[in-house]
Specification:
Elements: E1 2-11, E2 14-24, E3 29-33, H1 40-47, E4 53-60, E5 63-64, E6 78-81, H2 93-103, H3 108-117, H4 119-123, H5 134-146, E7 152-156, H6 164-179, E8 183-187, H7 191-197, E9 200-205, E10 208-214, H8 215-220, H9 223-228
Parallel strand pairs: 3-8, 3-9, 6-7, 7-8
Antiparallel strand pairs: 1-2, 1-4, 4-5, 9-10
Length: about 230
């Protein structure tokens, strides 16, 4: 289980997260919803150790992630697919995947598993990442994170700018990971897409945690979405 315990973080003197507490259980998809600037991406970066905490702690099971250096966090089994993908554009699909495998010492059987999940990448295996379509790049970013054999997967706007067929393919993989017991923290602006896959939804406003609800309850009553996400 991933657990944030009253986490405060920001950029220099600019505090963004304010005593945010959050839990994501194994085999659960928790969606983090909020307006632009609410602190969703900052939350992801804090979990990965890319931002120093002002206060609070972050745990994965019994391991305190917030006590680790950033390069050590993925080795505990935390995969991260950032907004904008952040691929090594000049490297091939194969080389990007190999970097993912090296991060946690995964073997060739893991490479085959992720390529089975994304057959399109097998077809593009020797192409440079920058020559892929937007959807293919998102698949590659996700595949690279899955090479860690993650216990937790952080996904920041994974369907942004993608055509429906690519969105459906990535959603199918995410749901499959949930069935395998992976804890998934998902940031997504497309509310309808979120409610179709999430188990619970946690709202964030001005860096502070808001209501946490079952997705099925939100499907029946959208009023609280208007409060936290509406303009």
């Amino acid at each position: 289980m991933l657990r944030l315990d009253r986490v405060s973080a920001g950029y220099g003197r600019a505090q963004v997260l304010r005593a945010l507490s959050l839990e994501v259980k194994a085999g659960e998809i928790l969606c983090l919803l909020g307006r632009n600037g609410a602190g969703k991406t900052t939350c992801m970066r804090a979990i990965m150790g890319l931002l120093p905490l002002m206060s609070g702690r972050i745990w994965l099971d019994k391991t305190e992630l917030s006590a680790l250096a950033p390069h050590q966090v993925p080795r505990t089994g935390v995969g991260y697919v950032p907004q904008g993908r952040r691929l090594f554009a000049e490297l091939t699909v194969a080389q990007n995947i190999e970097i993912g495998l090296m991060a946690r010492g995964s073997g060739p059987e893991v490479r085959e598993e992720v390529l089975d999940l994304f057959p399109r990448l097998r077809e593009r295996y020797h192409q440079r990442a920058q020559t892929l379509s937007g959807g293919e790049q998102q698949m590659l970013a996700t595949a690279r994170a899955l090479c860690l054999r993650p216990k937790v997967l952080l996904l920041d706007e994974p369907t942004e700018g993608l055509q429906p067929s690519m969105i459906a393919a990535i959603r199918e993989v995410i749901v499959g990971l949930r069935h395998k017991g992976v804890a998934i923290l998902l940031v997504e602006q497309r509310v309808d897409a979120v409610l179709s896959v999430a188990d619970r939804v946690a709202f964030i406003e001005n860096g502070q945690g808001g209501v946490v609800m079952r997705a099925e309850d939100l499907r029946a009553d959208h009023t609280i979405i208007d409060r936290y996400v509406g303009v």
